[in-house]
Design goal:
4-stranded parallel sheet; 12 strands; 13 helices; alpha/beta
Length: 346
């Protein structure tokens, strides 16, 4: 099978190989009709640029780094998939670099990786996207970065995020609309920017409905399934009338893993979901659909956020002004109603 070259594309499109290269590399100085013609021929011939040749002919490596603190989590899997698929569309390659801030010498490891890989850009996920030492390493190396859901220094880089506050507020409103007045909340890892935003959204919705938030029903987890098990049990073992109110009729956990822990605890204690307890989460992880009943949750566009980060880094204009509004991206969420929530008392 003959390998299609850039010269083949140029010949069929009736342009020079240099023009084809400009189109593939996303350069701006190409007439729209010429760009469209080249892109059409690229698709017709199924042309795949040679990454090594591209890097030799330019100062770019066409390699992006995904820096993440927990590469085996469900969140990380969705982010990796979104970044990988968009990299393929853009003829880039992706390398995943774990960053464990508690490990000795992580700074040298990151610095060595940046130097050895000759990256064109970095995608940085929470919570490490707010670590000043890590960001300083990128700046010192002149490495463009895009951060996903940071909580501070917004002008320091391009940003991709969603409105966690609004999403949590809407989910709480959904529970209130079902008649729930005593709602428990399981917070996420306090080092993640989303944790505070989600709790604030919950608290605001309760306040606007004139409902009190029982402090004993607000417990701090760490986004793990185990913390959902433990904290769910702490709330659900309350006897009716104890502490002036008993257990909540609904529990909103800050992610799906913790919500599933609450769901399992309810089953263990013989509490029917949703008749005796409504449970909801956040993320729309695959496990939310595998549970029974399936989990009501917020669909967070994790893969789309990663893809948007790739788009920003692949834009040649990004290196000249990281604070341009086009590089401050906010994506929509969806409240997904499933069987784990219902009206009070069934």
């Amino acid at each position: 099978m003959k390998i299609v070259t850039i010269k083949d594309v140029a010949e069929r499109a009736g342009v020079s190989a240099k023009t084809v290269s400009r189109v593939i590399n996303g350069e701006q100085h190409v007439r729209p009709e010429v760009r469209e013609a080249v892109q059409r021929v690229v698709a017709e011939l199924d042309y795949r640029p040679n990454a090594f040749a591209r890097s030799l002919s330019s100062s770019r490596s066409y390699l992006l780094g995904l820096f993440i603190d927990d590469p085996v989590s469900g969140y990380a899997s969705d982010v990796q998939l979104g970044a990988l698929m968009r990299c393929r569309e853009k003829s880039y390659h992706l390398v995943v670099e774990p960053v464990v801030l508690s490990a000795d010498g992580w700074q040298k490891q990151v610095a060595d990786s940046i130097a050895a890989l000759r990256l064109d850009g970095a995608i940085v996920t929470p919570p490490i996207c707010d670590e000043p030492e890590l960001l300083d390493l990128f700046d010192a190396a002149g490495l463009p970065m895009v951060r996903i859901a940071p909580r501070m220094d917004f002008a320091r880089s391009g940003i991709v995020q969603m409105d966690d506050h609004a999403a949590a507020k809407e989910m709480t409103g959904h529970l209130i609309g079902l008649g729930h007045r005593s709602i428990g909340f399981v917070k996420g890892d306090p080092t993640h920017s989303a944790s505070a935003k989600r709790f604030d959204g919950f608290r605001e919705a309760m306040a606007e409905a004139g409902l009190a938030v029982a402090e004993r029903h607000v417990l701090e987890g760490d986004f793990s399934f185990r913390s959902g098990l433990e904290l769910g049990e702490a709330m659900l073992r309350e006897e009716a009338g104890s502490h002036g109110g008993g257990r909540p009729t609904a529990i909103f956990a800050s992610n799906d893993d913790m919500a599933l822990g609450v769901l399992i605890t309810a089953m263990k204690l013989g509490i029917s979901v949703p008749d005796g307890l409504s449970v909801c989460g956040f993320d729309d992880a695959p496990t939310s659909r595998a549970a029974w009943p399936q989990l009501t949750t917020i669909r967070q566009p994790k893969a789309e956020m990663a893809a948007a980060a790739v788009d920003i880094l692949a834009d040649p204009r990004y290196r000249t002004d990281v604070t341009d509004a086009r590089y401050q991206v906010s994506l929509d969420y969806v409240l997904v109603k499933r069987g784990s929530t219902g009206v009070v008392g069934g």
